[in-house]
Amino acid sequence: MFRSLSLNLALMLCGSAFAAPTEQPLTGCAAKRAEIAGKLEEARARGDQNAVAGLQTALDKSKANCTDDGLAQQRAQRVIDAEKEVSRREKDLRKALDKGDAEKLEKRKTKLAEARAELEQAKRELAE
Q1: CA 26 to CA 125: how far, in whole Å?
Q2: What is the spatial distance between Cα 44 and Cα 63, in angstroms, rounded to a whole number?
Q3: Residue 83 belongs to domain spanning
Q4: What backbone torsions phi and psi does residue 27 show, to the nearest 5 degrees?
Q5: pTM value?
Q6: In a shared domain, residues 33 and 74
Q7: One pLDDT digit (tens) per residue for the chain, 128 residues
Q8: Quick one: which H or E segment has residue 12?
């Protein structure tokens, strides 16, 4: 009886290991649609009809128009634009340093930090 129980347990464990392969995370348009669908369900749960309407429109447009290649191009362009923004903010910071205006210096540092954060976000999205 012990051998039978052990054998059954071993078979169940092996069977479950083969029956439940690890799922790959969604990428591209599928990930975008899943994110929108999740937000849509949250809005429905909150009863936020304005958000539901907007998210439903976004989901419909994503289903109709999103392609993985197009999304990759948009994300690559966003990285390029963010890099230009970081460059512009660095230039602004150098000008503020040259003038020695402490108030402008702090504003420029803050704006540069925000631009760098947007660039990192854009890079993460491009990698998805």
Answers
A1: 12
A2: 19
A3: 68-128
A4: -135, 165
A5: 0.65
A6: no
A7: 444 444 444 445 444 444 445 577 888 899 899 999 999 999 999 999 999 999 999 999 999 999 999 999 999 999 999 999 999 999 999 999 999 888 889 999 999 999 999 999 999 998 87
A8: helix 2-19
